[in-house]
Structures are given as structure tokens and as C-alpha cells.
Write a structure and sequence with these properties.
Belongs to the sigma-70 factor family. ECF subfamily. With 164 residues, the protein is an all-alpha fold. The protein is built from seven helices and no strands. The N and C termini lie far apart (53 Å).
Amino acid sequence: MSDALEQDFVRQLRENQNIIHKICRLYTSGEDAHKDLFQEITIQLWKAYPKFRGDAKFSTWAYRVALNTAITLYRKSTRSVATTEYDSSRHFIRQEDYNYEEEEQIKLMYQAVYQLNDIEKALVFMYLEDKDYAEISETLGISEVNARVKMNRIKTKLKKILNP
């Protein structure tokens, strides 16, 4: 990979790493698992970056890769994925600290979201990120109508979980 392409990847990753942290928070419980998933998503983004054509925004593409990686890794805890070493210090990517204590207000919401299936989690995450249904449907590979219907069902499900 050329140095220019590598530098562009590092810049894009720095600008969008909060997306990855949020996905890690959604699909893991605990700091070690969060860090492991963050690293695996970074590696998968790095491997796939040469094929990124720019048809969609980097953030949309990163959502897709990150969600697919999270779903693949955590759907079955017994499944293992081959990883590749990636020296982030060489590229000066600093993983920002993620403070779990700071988010006490949304802890209950996360607990409710943990009870959803993988696709429902992804849809809720993108909805909470203020993504429109066009971007949600493009990222998840479903129609806009299907995304709206699923979201309405998820809202009802979450209300029942939070207010039994």
C-alpha cells in the first residue's frame, strides 16, 4: 500500500474512531473485550481499505465493516477469527480512553439494547447516531421501508424491556 493511501487511512480512522468505540460498547461488556474488538475492527478496516472506492462516505463504509466484524465475532463466542498484527504506534493512532463511568445515565438503555438481536442492535445504534433511513438501509442492506418497520418494532420492544 502506498504511503499516501496509508496516511489517508490513518487520518480517516482518527476522525471516525468514535464510531468504532460506540459499536464496541454496543457489542461488548468490559474494557478488555472492548479493546480487543476495537483492534479487530481496525485491522479489518485496514485490510479492506484498498478496496474502498469512495462510493459512500468513509463513515458509512466504516459502520458497515465495523458492524459486520462485531456481529461475526460476537454472534458465536466459540468462533475465532484469524487476526493480523497491526502496529498502531507506527502510524500514531492513539486509542482514546473510553470512560465507562461517565455514561451512567445510558447504562439502562445499553442493558436493554444488549437484549436485542444483532441486526436490531445495529439499527438502534445507527438510529441513535441520527442516521437517516436511507443511510441505515444502505449500510444494513435492507430497504428503507423495512428499516422503518423494524425500528418501530424495536422501539416497542425496548419500551417493554425498560418498563415491564
